[in-house]
């Protein structure tokens, strides 16, 4: 068993490796180096392959959020503000974070496990022997696929959460769908949609780069492959929350600053 200090140092080193990998991916992308036939395969994994948990989580999250907020707002007679609260909190923040977390758990862990298995079985070394760059062949298609599909999945998540919110408001608090949706429309600005899409692009890059980086830096055997997949997901979750915090400060109006 490795000492705690060594584990922390190893985690820092692998985080630094992920940053370097992001730089390499950006450079190769600008140079137009990628295996395009692999992109569609990974798009299916990051999109339709993850649609079921995204639907379920966002529908129920939308209902839970509406129940909790409507209970307090109805008590103060602010029925018309229920949809607005939903728009500001769920649409701007909760839905993107939930969706990115689901994709990280399902897709990011798969990327880490796949590339980790290839690393420990020396398949990565075989690619070098064949004069094939693993970044072009393995990493870049995954990054492009996640960056393309994550924004689409977030828009879909918003729609599912909105359906759940409308249902909960009408079923439990007798708030008409027209009132709920009108409140959402009044509070949610067109620029919010662009911000959500931007978050999807950034979170997609995080999921793919961290997953691939943890896979490529795997050493040992089957046990280490599983550990890499787990640590990749946890690191991605932490990164998503940190990045989302700074994006919220930069992109949304803050009266304190």
From TrEMBL:
Membrane-topology descriptor: Multi-pass membrane protein
Keyword Iron: no
Main location: membrane
Keyword Transmembrane tagged: yes
UniProt KW keywords: Membrane, Transmembrane, Transmembrane helix, Transport
Transmembrane segments annotated in the record for this chain: 12-30, 50-67, 193-217, 229-252
GO cellular component: ATP-binding cassette (ABC) transporter complex
Molecular functions (GO terms): phospholipid transporter activity
Compartments (UniProt record): Membrane
InterPro entries on file: ABC_MlaE_roteobac, Permease_MalE
Similarity field: Belongs to the MlaE permease family.
Protein's recorded name: MlaE family lipid ABC transporter permease subunit
């Amino acid at each position: 068993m490795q000492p705690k200090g060594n584990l922390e140092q190893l985690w820092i080193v692998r985080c630094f490796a992920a940053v370097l990998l992001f730089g390499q991916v950006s450079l190769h992308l600008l140079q137009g180096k990628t295996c395009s036939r692999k992109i569609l395969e990974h798009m299916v994994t990051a999109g339709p392959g993850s649609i079921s948990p995204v639907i379920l989580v966002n529908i129920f999250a939308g209902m839970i959020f509406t129940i909790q907020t409507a209970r307090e707002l109805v008590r103060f007679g602010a029925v018309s503000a229920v949809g607005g609260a939903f728009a500001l909190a769920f649409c701007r923040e909760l839905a993107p974070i939930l969706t990115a977390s689901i994709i990280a758990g399902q897709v990011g862990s798969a990327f880490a496990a796949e590339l980790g298995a290839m690393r420990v079985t020396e398949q990565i070394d075989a690619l070098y022997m064949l004069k094939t760059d693993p970044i072009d062949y393995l990493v870049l298609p995954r990054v492009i696929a996640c960056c393309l599909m994550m924004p689409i999945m977030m828009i879909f998540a918003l729609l599912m959460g909105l359906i759940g919110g409308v249902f909960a408001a009408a079923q439990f608090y007798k708030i008409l769908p027209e009132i709920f949706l009108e409140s959402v429309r009044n509070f949610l600005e067109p620029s919010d949609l662009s911000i959500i899409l931007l978050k999807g692009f950034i979170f997609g890059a995080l999921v793919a780069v961290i997953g691939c980086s943890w896979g490529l830096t795997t050493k040992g055997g089957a046990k280490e492959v599983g550990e890499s997949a787990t640590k990749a997901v946890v690191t991605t979750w932490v990164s998503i929350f940190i990045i989302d915090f700074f994006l919220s400060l930069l992109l949304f109006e803050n009266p304190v600053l």
